[in-house]
Design goal:
By secondary structure, the chain is of the alpha/beta class. The chain has eleven helices and 13 strands. The strands form three sheets. The chain has a six-stranded mixed beta sheet with strand order 5-6-7-3-8-9, with helices on both faces. The protein has a four-stranded antiparallel beta sheet with strand order 11-12-10-13, covered by helices on one side. A three-stranded antiparallel beta sheet has the order 2-1-4, covered by helices on one side. β8 and β9 form a beta hairpin. α4 packs across α5. The longest helix has 16 residues.
Length: 312
């Protein structure tokens, strides 16, 4: 399988403190292979080393040890940089320019002709939903609008590899949905998307493969389906949500289920062990005058895997 990014023993130390500085290891021996095509999620809590990893890949930081390759070249190689796009976690642009001027300027850095620069600026601003505001100064943009402009500049050169550091930061629900749709569109076009996030629901919707970092170390990596299948208890049991449940009926059923939770007066969630069939519980609830709202198979989520791995 062709790889877009490879890291071997990637390590990064910083000096922390002022008078008596001491070493702080932000990244500790990270070894990863990210295949070409698809969406790869780099996940972890704040301070896990996600941004440090991405900055090393685009040569904004230099590793203390180990090595990395991006599109078959070392980080910083001019040919590799022509073929990738990058969105930093907190994009900061020239706020005295308009979005259109900014994108035209970035297109010029890649050597496009003046006409092509304007066409690309227009195309990608439309793509991220900034078309109507393209001639407003960036200083008047909201944080979410600046984030959209940042995504547009990451795509201005039609990159093979798109690296996005917390791309959902500052976006409202509509903006997050739009960015998710855009990432899937990039995937369908055959591009490789590598993004960091601590929003696990976004990663679960988008990623085919993920890596989880904690305290600078890789604690899990692989196909999302394999990670959730390998989690103990994966696919175990059922969850039944019911309303109008009399308290005495809830007390009686509690002894037969793995967990019973009162959500609101008369509304309960019952979690069943895998050996307990849900039909019997549903029948008992119905005979007591309760109504079943939902019956859902319990499955392991990315959040379950994430919490289990980072707390080991």
């Amino acid at each position: 399988m062709a790889t877009a990014v490879v890291t071997e023993g990637l390590t990064k130390d910083f000096r922390a403190g002022f008078w008596r500085s001491r070493p702080h290891r932000a990244l500790d021996g990270l070894s990863l292979e990210i295949p070409t095509g698809g969406v790869f999620g780099l996940l972890g809590p704040n301070g896990a080393g996600k941004s440090t990893t991405l900055k090393i890949l685009i040569n904004l930081l230099w590793p203390s040890a180990g090595r990395a390759q991006v599109l078959g070249r070392p980080p910083g190689d001019v040919d590799a940089r022509r073929r990738l796009g990058f969105l930093p976690e907190h994009p900061t642009f020239y706020d005295h320019l308009t979005a259109e001027e900014l994108l035209t300027y970035f297109a010029g850095l890649f050597g496009y002709s003046p006409a092509d620069r304007r066409a690309r600026a227009s195309r990608f601003l439309d793509l991220v939903g900034i078309g109507a505001d393209r001639r407003r100064l960036l200083r008047h943009y909201s944080k979410g609008m600046v984030q959209r402009v940042g995504i547009a500049q990451a795509l201005i050169n039609d990159p093979e590899l798109v690296i996005l550091d917390e791309p959902m930061s500052g976006l409202d629900p509509i903006g997050r949905r739009d960015v998710r749709d855009l990432i899937l569109k990039l995937r369908d076009e055959g591009r490789t998307v590598l993004f960091s996030s601590h929003i696990l629901s976004d990663a679960e919707l988008l990623c085919s493969r993920v890596a989880i970092l904690a305290k600078g170390r890789l604690v899990a990596s692989g196909a999302l389906s394999d990670l959730t299948a390998a989690q103990p208890g994966s696919g175990d049991g059922w969850e039944v949500v019911a309303i109008n449940v009399p308290p005495e009926v809830a007390d009686r059923l509690t002894a037969r289920v793995r967990r019973a939770t009162c959500i609101a007066p008369g509304r309960y969630t019952f979690e069943l062990a895998p050996e307990v069939r849900p039909e019997t519980l549903v029948t008992d609830l119905a005979s007591a005058g309760a109504s079943v709202v939902s019956l859902t198979p319990v499955r392991t989520t990315l959040e379950d895997v994430f919490m289990e791995r980072i707390t080991r």
